[in-house]
Amino acid sequence: MTLLLAALALLLGGGIIVLATSRPHRDWSWLAAGVVVVAAIVGGIPAVQVLAGGTVSTLHWPWAVPFGQFALGLDPLSAWFLLPTLLLSALAAIYGAGYGKSGAEPRSLGPVWFFYCLLVLSMVLVVLARNAILFLFAWELMAVASYFLVTVEHERPEVRQAGWIYLAATQVGTAFLLALFLLLARQTGSMDFTVWAARGIPAGGWAAVLFVLAAIGLGTKAGFMPLHGWLPEAHPAAPSHVSALMSGVMIKTGIYGFLRVLTFLRTPPLWWGWTFIGIGMTSGVLGVLWALAQHDLKRLLAYHSIENIGIIALGMGVGMIGWSTGSAPLMVLGFGGALLHVLNHSLFKGLLFLAAGAVLQQTGEHDLDRLGGLLRRMPWTGTAFLIGAAAICGLPPLNGFISEFLIFLGALRGVALAPGAVAVSLLAVVAGLGLIGGLAVACFTKAFGVVFLGTPRSESARTAAEVGPAMIGPMLILAAACILVGLLAPLAVATLPRVLTNLTGLPTAAIHGGLAGAVGPLLAVVTASVVLLVILGLLMLWRRRLLSRQVVATGTTWGCGYAQPTPRMQYTASSFAQPLLSWTSAVLGGRRQLTAPNGYFPAAASLHTQTPDPLHPDLYRPALDRIGAGLARQRWLQPAAVQLCILYIALALLALLIWKFG
Amino acid sequence: MLTNLILILVVLSNLKLLASSRLGAAIRVVAAQGVVLGLLPILAHREPLAAHALLLAAGTITLKGVVFPWLLLRAIREAHVAREVEPFVGYSASLGAGVLILGISFWMCTRLPMPASIASSWLAPVALFSIFVGLFLIAARKRAISQVLGFLVLENGVYTFGVGVTSRTPLIVEIGVLLDVFVAVFIMGITIFHIQREFDHTAAAPAGDGKD
Amino acid sequence: MKLLTLIPPAAAMLLAPLLFGVINRTKAWLAGRQGRPLLQSYFDLWKLLHKGAVYSATTSWIFRAAPMTALAALLTASLLMPFGHVAAPLEFPADFLLFIGLLGLARFATVLAALDTGSSFEGMGASREVFFSALAEPVLLLALATLVRQAQAGGPGSLAAVFQRLTTRVHWLHDGPILALVVSALLVVLLAENARVPVDDPQTHLELTMIHEVMVLDHSGPDLAFIVYGTALKLWLLAALVVGMVLPPVRAIWLNMLLATVGMGVTAVAVGVVESVMARLRLALVPQLLVGAGALAAAAFLLGLA
């Protein structure tokens, strides 16, 4: 605990010093980054110790706030979230030091680093807090610090607006959280997490209310689908290393908070699991579809965060169903997969945002359709992005496959053994994960292909060059981590039991029994991965031998005999995504403005496509207006057509039957 | 065993109906469904074959397999109805909805008390499925003929329920036959009034632009 | 690892190109033509392996690495698929998830290589490939989950265990209709994933209409050989999936092998017949076909529950 306090003090002190001493043109970035790295190492030691089986330490200081107490604790669940937070904070700080230096405008970086340190500090506090008031304090600190980081480039109006949307959304979430904590305090007469966990809330009416409050309040931060509006606005607006931090670990504090609340609520009823499966399916499938529709690399990645939160929610749903049906393997595999995906997502999403930042810095282009051919110009960044892309698609032998494999295993176990409705809901998880994975491949082949492959589509992409080692280093470390977690999957899973005991309260034997079903398959998966790499190596050698005796020539790309291809003839991101988007347009909506070529000698033609998110905060207003107008006319209930009339009857009949039999 | 096969064929034909875009094909699918269902009274019960079961089978097959399709195909020809179904809900989405309806039907029937003598545990869910698919087709398709088809499917569901679940010649089957007669009248209506598309042309004007 | 388990991958690696020959012969026979030799695919592969290569100036190392990666993934996948009721060398619970993941990896590599050429034709093929396979993947999972449920193996078993229980324990007369639905869903996936009619036409030479073939237009020499061989392996593996769940086991191993090989031949003939009697679907109808296959698999699962 002393080490953790030292880390917190370092972050606070370092932040203040950098803020106080820095002026424009005088760069203290390396000092700040160094402070974050040291703090991360100092704080990481106890986290590793706790995960490896060390004692769970706590700390209680009186605090002059009513009901407040400076109570910190580091149990395995906290440590599991603390570790990626510290790792990514340190790597993003190093990257940020390299990133900030090459910025064009003379801006004092002091405040940026101050709020960066504050953000890391608040995230550490959130996962350590053991008192509701302290938790809320850290939660608000996190919101404020990240708000100021989102609005670093405040001279741009869209950034200011993104900041406001973010602040508004996070405050709404906090309101629900406040209600949740007040209710919990009323039920137990304390503000202390340990008391809440010890007493527990009996299943029933109050537990349901608390569940809904937690799902909304914490789900807003995590970015569950109907509450995700702020996320695709805020992430692209922030500097890239901050986006990496926000997307990689900050939104996970929502997941952490929910898991923590789950330890207070105890045995969830079946419908909680179903709710989470519903949330996961919606967030996952719609998140990846909207990602596919984006033209801006960072917005695309932001929507993928929603998708991955959906996968985590699916895992939690499987776990909760296991909890309520009393199936330890389901519980262990579901929650275990979700926890591992939290770690994995922080690795590859952090990596992808850092690589996207490098592209943005070198080209200055936001639009995917103006990039291209960057792999030759930025080989390290490109390779790192490729590894991250393959990992996020859940492809073997990388880490994304491992966590999805665990969730799949849990769901399939239920599919094979559970009774009727439970089996069907888990079948939906299986099919949904498959669909999400397939669509993610579509989205990331688009992103990587259009940005890094082919030929440059603009002058700025043509003149791009590789970024400096301070930026490449963190990316390569994260890429290596993606590969390592994939290849050392059984080891990664071996750290889970303590976290799961902490979360579910199951006896250790049951946890190990549940995980035993996964260890064998994971070993086999790793064997297959090694075999895959060996075969790949052999094929490389063979191909080299085959080609060494033959003529290897260079030509132009086949274009039906046309020998003068230009970059403008390449398939663009928009055209790549078009078939999928038009097929799903009933769900996604989307606007297109087409000026078609006309006549024998057509003049300039143009096509603009846009797929606005109907849940974008800006779009709430017209929708509300329309509802108001509709209500005013008071005629909307009158069926417009016979079909509608019959539809009402059918729906009423269906609802009646469900109610009657349900 | 054969009952199960029949019921699967009913499920498949319903799914096919949800996905098919051509009126002619849809009519043939409904006809095939009628023929298959005609065999149900003979197979659904373990009692010795009764004359009324044979009669019911013969009547159903003739009516649903031959007469109605012939009338409907003629109606298409005479009224020069275009061959496309013109859906409000796309075909893939309709298929998805179909699977959802199937799931709900199965779930509902786990809550329903069933007689012990029932020939197959699938009977009641498949019957419910047909009823809901029929309602869905009526609501989700523009053309009058598709709505007649939806109505026929709905009626097939009622019939499946009646023949399969109750053992004696029941009142509910009689009601089914009455509904059949209604369909016949309906079809005549189409040929006579040449309803091209929606009912709205002959019924009330769309409420959206009326100032009543 | 028993020596016997080497038979399934060995059979896959040796016999896979033969499937093309069988399909081709079937089509030729139905069209009243002579057809090319059964072993033509082997001659083609041999020739391609001993040719030089031409690379577009646009391409990077991705383009060169992709055929090897795809083939390595498919070769690894061939270590997972049992054949003739002999388990594969890598057999573990839910091994089919890794199988699907490896197919995904192969696709990922092929699509990136297509985009690396900067050709709009290949981009077009890549775009369609990811679209259709994104729909085929959940169908495959739905079908396999239904099999797992039907096999009642006490959890997500391995492919070999699921096949074993399906073909011995399950009563075909009673559960036959359910399994028939799954088989038809799997056959649609097989046709879609292998770019056969009615999803894609491997014989066409119009770049605008192709899916798989257009993605590999720019590969040549050994790279193209790897890709062609990989395509054959993929067809073999998915066909082995269908054959494995249908064919009942007999006592003697050699007889099992023989039966399974005949089963593969029959599947190839069926593919050839489909290609002879059907036209390719409009591209807009392909998603509908796949959703329909998914509906079949889901319906099979629901019917199996009741």
Topology (elements, then pairings):
The complex is a heterotrimer of chains A (662), B (212) and C (306).
Chain A: H1 2-21, H2 29-51, E1 57-62, E2 69-74, H3 76-101, H4 110-128, H5 132-150, H6 157-188, H7 193-199, H8 205-222, H9 231-237, H10 240-250, H11 252-265, H12 270-293, H13 297-325, H14 328-363, H15 374-377, H16 379-392, H17 399-417, H18 420-452, H19 459-462, H20 469-487, H21 489-494, H22 496-504, H23 508-548, E3 552-555, H24 573-583, H25 585-588, E4 591-595, E5 606-610, H26 617-633, H27 642-661
Antiparallel strand pairs in A: 1-2, 4-5
Helix pairs in contact in A: 1-2, 1-4, 2-3, 2-4, 3-4, 3-10, 3-14, 3-20, 3-22, 4-5, 5-6, 5-10, 6-8, 6-9, 8-11, 9-10, 9-13, 10-14, 12-13, 12-18, 13-14, 13-17, 13-18, 14-16, 14-17, 14-20, 14-22, 14-23, 16-18, 16-20, 17-18, 17-20, 22-23
Chain B: H1 2-19, H2 23-38, H3 40-43, H4 51-79, H5 91-110, H6 123-140, H7 144-165, H8 171-193
Helix pairs in contact in B: 1-2, 1-5, 1-6, 2-4, 2-7, 4-8, 5-6, 6-7, 7-8
Chain C: H1 7-30, H2 40-49, E1 53-56, H3 61-78, H4 95-116, H5 120-151, H6 159-168, H7 172-193, H8 212-215, H9 221-246, H10 253-277, H11 286-305
Helix pairs in contact in C: 1-9, 1-10, 2-9, 3-4, 3-9, 4-5, 5-6, 5-7, 5-11, 7-9, 7-11, 9-10
